[in-house]
Design a protein that fits this description.
Elements lengths: L1 H23 L36 E9 L9 E3 L9 E7 L5 H10 L4 E2 L14 H6 L6 E2 L6 E3 L5 E3 L3 E3 L32 H9 L3 E3 L11 H18 L7 E3 L5 H9 L5 E4 L18 E4 L1 E2 L4 H11 L9 E5 L4 H14 L7 E2 L3 H13 L1 E7 L2 E8 L9 E7 L6 E6 L5 E7 L2 E7 L4 H15 L2 H11 L6 H10 L3
Helix pairs in contact: 2-8, 5-6, 10-11, 10-12, 11-12
């Protein structure tokens, strides 16, 4: 009898402990990672994150552009230059999102790229629910998402969309970027899997980069964040981790954390950091007054709790001649509904659905474009009625946006019969601008493969947003048989 009682006591104890463990597993550890029930998982599709092949990206390039004209011209009357802003835009906005926030993916990136947006009324509130790339791929989304049913951006001046892009900071030394996203399609008993994670996961970062966004160093796991040498050693560790996770892509931007100037000193000492941004003790950026390549410069940025306050600053700057306009350089942590509405306002007022005056790239892309502006060489010559340009982009460390706008002042498109280029120009468009003809050249080595990836994705999902993406990336390509075939596959006009 005593043995039976002892057995029953042990059984009850184990049962209670097991129940407690199961109950606690819904809440302990990393938020948004505990899956309380396997129900619904049988319908999940295997998600393989896509990473552009940065290891093989072009580093420096020389190309020849042949412009066949309908008549002979005086070569001396055609001025060739790279304008201060890409696509001949008249003002610049830059946004860096600090602290490796999950909202950078399911709010900022989602709003720009026409995806479901996590409804974050007040970032961090208990009712706010988030999602990851793996959730989106499987259609397993929180119940509070909303959509703009369009993408946000500007144009390249030749009728092609150019989506807004921003810079997100990373914290690669933390294992929390490796946390698995639990997908549980159809399970609605609770939404713990959509609770905010401490950090972005790598899958989200990879997808954001595929759409043209940039990355930056921010906090590091230094023992003493007031010790320059300690921070410097951890920046090197972070760079190795980033390159390992992102197919060889390195980081060259530092966003100052918490106003800590020791990070800026370390950033100046670390050769792979080429540009920084900070809240104070920094340089105000006037794009049309820049006289150098901005290497190791610290660009001033501002934080606003309410993005509506920025609207008056924008309007004030746009009253000035473009040569006097200050770049709107913003920092943000979490992005709520108020921020996505601000992005929508930018699109509708100054983007592709407005006056199309705004260029909104990542700080990475702006730095590279400005670098090419000062270090590229362009020569010109006439062969009969053909104007030939030889364009050479310099080799730069950790550069991933080999793309420039070239202006031909004094030449209009109605005088052009045909434009051809060497094979290493993978993306091309042209149009008249206010003083002549402009050409947009893209040298990315894997641009065709990149566009094909999005076509294949659309063919798999048949989602409207994936068709928009496929059309967007295919339209970046220069005219060719491959481009025509890809457009036919997605049913694009």
């Amino acid at each position: 009898m005593k043995l039976l009682n002892l057995f029953l006591l042990l059984f009850i104890s184990v049962f209670i402990c097991s129940s407690c463990v199961k109950e606690r597993s819904l809440y302990n550890g990393e938020q948004g990672t505990d899956n309380p029930d396997d129900k619904g998982n049988s319908n999940n599709k295997t998600y393989t994150p896509y990473v552009y092949n940065y290891n093989t990206e072009v580093s420096g390039a020389t190309a020849e552009i042949s412009i066949e004209l309908d008549e002979l011209i005086d070569l001396d009357k055609v001025e060739v230059s790279i304008p201060p802003l890409k696509y001949n835009k008249s003002w610049l906005l830059l946004l860096t999102q600090d602290d490796c926030k999950q909202a950078a993916y399911c709010s900022t990136w989602a709003a720009i790229n026409g995806k479901p947006i996590a409804f974050l009324d007040t970032v961090g509130a208990t009712r706010d629910l988030y999602y990851d790339a793996k959730h989106l791929y499987n259609g397993d989304l929180p119940p509070n998402t909303y959509e703009y049913k369009k993408t946000l951006g500007s144009s390249d001046g030749a009728g092609n969309e150019v989506r807004f892009a921003f810079t997100t900071t990373l914290y690669p030394e933390s294992e929390k970027m490796d946390v698995e996203s639990n997908v549980n399609n159809g399970f609605t008993d609770n939404y713990y899997r959509f609770y905010m994670k401490s950090l972005l996961v790598w899958d989200n970062v990879k997808e954001m980069l595929a759409y043209g966004n940039g990355i930056a160093f921010h906090d590091v796991a230094a023992t003493d964040v007031n010790n320059e040498s300690d921070i410097l050693s951890h920046l090197s560790i972070c760079q190795s981790l980033i390159k390992d996770r992102l197919s060889g892509r390195g980081c060259k931007v530092l966003a100052e954390p918490n106003g800590n100037k020791t990070y800026l000193a370390a950033g100046k000492a670390y050769d792979q950091i080429q540009i920084m941004t900070a809240q104070a003790g920094a340089t105000k950026l006037y794009p049309f007054q820049v006289t150098d390549d901005l290497h190791k410069k610290i660009i001033e940025r501002w934080f606003y709790n309410d993005p509506n306050d920025i609207k008056d600053i924008v309007k004030q700057q746009l009253r000035l001649p473009k040569e006097e306009r200050l770049a709107i350089c913003l920092g943000v942590h979490g992005t709520s509904l108020y921020w996505t509405e601000f992005l929508l306002w930018l699109n509708n007022m100054y983007g592709k659905d407005g006056d199309d005056s705004l260029w909104f790239p990542s700080l990475e892309e702006y730095y590279e474009y400005n670098y090419y502006r000062f270090h590229s060489t362009i020569s010109k010559k006439m062969e009969g009625n053909t104007l030939k340009l030889t364009v050479t982009l310099p080799t730069g460390q950790n550069m991933y946006y080999p793309s420039v706008t070239i202006n031909l002042k004094g030449l209009s498109k109605n005088k052009v019969k045909n434009i051809t280029s060497t094979d290493n120009v993978t993306g091309f468009s042209s149009a008249d601008y206010e003083e002549g003809l402009m050409m947009n050249l893209d040298f990315r080595k894997n641009l065709v493969e990149h566009a094909t990836h999005f076509v294949l994705k659309y063919e798999e999902t048949k989602k409207v947003s994936d068709q928009r993406d496929a059309r967007y990336f295919v339209n970046m390509l220069k005219e060719s048989a491959i481009k025509t075939q890809l457009l036919e596959r997605i049913g694009a006009n």
